[in-house]
Amino acid sequence: MKRAFSYWESAHVIGPIDTLIVGGGIVGLSAALRRCEMDSNERVVIVERDALSGGGSTKNAGFACFGSPSELLSDLRQMSRDEVIELIRKRWRGLQGLRKLVGDREMDYRLTGGIELFRSEEDALSSACLESIVELNSLMEDAIGQSPFETLAPEELEHFGFQGFSVAINNTLEGSINTGKMYSTLRSMALEAGVLILNGLTATGFSLEGDDVELHTDSGSLRASRLLISTNGFARELLPELDVSPGRNLVLLTEPIPELQWEGTFHMQEGYVYFRNVENRILIGGARHLDASWNDTSSSPPSEVRAHLESLLNRNILPFRAAKITHSWMGYLGIGMKKTILSGKLSPRVGYTVRMGGMGVAIGNAAGSALADMID
Ligand SMILES: Cc1cc2nc3c(=O)[nH]c(=O)nc-3n(C[C@H](O)[C@H](O)[C@H](O)COP(=O)(O)OP(=O)(O)OC[C@H]3O[C@@H](n4cnc5c(N)ncnc54)[C@H](O)[C@@H]3O)c2cc1C
């Protein structure tokens, strides 16, 4: 027999529902919080497939970033200068908004700087970035009124104990957060505002029923006055026409390294690889450029991806000491042809906001609020 919620469940435990949100990541939680702020009597329910969140929101690296030199040069090849400025501004303002909402202390926000590192064999890319520093600072001036890029002298790089890096460019305004604390705070705020979060429930489709929307799930159907979809990389499961795919990312974390002297967030290889200090462990992840089937959600990345990350860790980042990997996990980005948020209305009662790329820490909260505002 088809699974169905009982009358008690749908009428008195879960509903009656005003706003249903599919996806309990940063965007879904932010949309829920915004709906409660608009009307504290509104019944808001989030349907989330995972135990916590199955995409990027609890799996990410916690970079509070808004543009490394090679990333911006790549953006300038694909978008107009004005579009790049707009994206930087969104990321920058989004970060300020997240800091205000969650609080720096609550999510361990640190203004560490974000350093892009180039190995000796990456000369062409490092030269292009060095030659463009003035232009990139002027781009930042136009976007946020500050010039954050500066090169690090070789002796400034020395105290990190790295090996094989010839050029380093710092974005002095980037920082880091504790991803777990940020998510936990957002989730607590939503629960306190009265949001019901139904974990372990998968949405399989939806239909418009008179003035209502019916959401079909693997445990039965739910009715609501409005439906907001924030499933990011997985959005095509419900909205197959959208240009967004899940991009898998492997993350490795070492055992604690008591003698680790540095803090900071580091980007490499056009942002495909990233690493940082997390509570005196090294977190390293990415290398999606070596993963030919990066959008396959049914399997793990090929062994070359892990081997590449481990090789960078052992040869370049921590060359004088072996460190055991104690944790590894996978997360999913939402990626499409364009590096912009994909947002729209399917009817006056159904809206979506997806495709956060690798920028969701910065833009996710503002994107969620805008999604909530989209539907009356
Ligand atoms: C490894 C990794 C590192 C990253 N590092 C950074 C970083 O350092 N800085 C940064 O700014 N960004 C980073 N990102 C990106 C950032 O995490 C994402 O952009 C952000 O979390 C997106 O939030 P979201 O709410 O849109 O999507 P998600 O967090 O992906 O949430 C979508 C949710 O929808 C749920 N869902 C999907 N389909 C269904 C369904 N049918 N029914 C019910 N639920 C469903 C999923 O389980 C998921 O929880 C990283 C991402 C990854 C994967």
Biggest sheet overview: 8 strands, mixed
Q: Tell me the helix content.
A: 25-40%
Mean pLDDT: 96
Tell me the domain tally: 2
- Work out the strand percent: 25-35%
- Helix-strand makeup class: alpha/beta
User: For this structure, what is the CATH homologous superfamily of the largest domain?
Assistant: D-Amino Acid Oxidase, subunit A, domain 2
Low-confidence stretches: none
Which small molecules are bound? flavin-adenine dinucleotide
Overall shape: it is globular
CATH fold descriptor of the largest domain: D-Amino Acid Oxidase, Chain A, domain 2
N-to-C SSE string, H for helix and E for strand: HEHEEHHEHHEHEEHEEEEEEEEHEEEH
Annotation, overall tally of beta strands: 18
Question: Span between N and C termini?
Answer: 37 Å
How many helices? The count is 10
Annotated CATH architecture of the largest domain: 2-Layer Sandwich
Rg over CA atoms: 21 Å
Topology:
Elements (H helix, E strand, L loop, with lengths): L6 H8 L2 E6 L3 H13 L5 E5 L14 E2 L4 H10 L2 H22 L11 E6 L3 H9 L1 H12 L4 E3 L2 H5 L6 E7 L3 E2 L2 H14 L3 E4 L3 E7 L2 E6 L2 E10 L15 E10 L10 E4 L4 E6 L2 E6 L16 H15 L7 E11 L6 E6 L2 E5 L5 H15 L2
Parallel strand pairs: 1-2, 1-11, 2-8, 4-13, 11-18
Antiparallel strand pairs: 3-7, 4-6, 5-6, 9-10, 10-11, 12-15, 12-16, 13-14, 14-15, 17-18
Helix pairs in contact: 2-8, 2-10, 4-6, 4-10
This protein binds flavin-adenine dinucleotide (FAD).
